[in-house]
Amino acid sequence: MGKKDATTAKLPVDQYRKQIGKQDYKKTKVALKATRLKADALRSAPGIKDILLVVVAILVFVLCVYAFFYLNLSMELDLDNDVD
Asked: Could you say which protein family the record assigns here (predicted)?
């Protein structure tokens, strides 16, 4: 019976630890919410990699168009020189 009485009575140290644990939980809950919001903001914002990828794709497209017209015009000029 001595054991039952010992477990039912809470020591002040245990109550203090429980109180600190609750406060710490509240702090971490707010910190987790702030971290989650920051991560969502970063995820929804366009990143540097995305912008760089779009710019590179546009440059490659322009380079392909330029090469196509350059090769067509150079072949036409070569054909004109061969006729003479």
From this structure: Belongs to the TRIQK family.
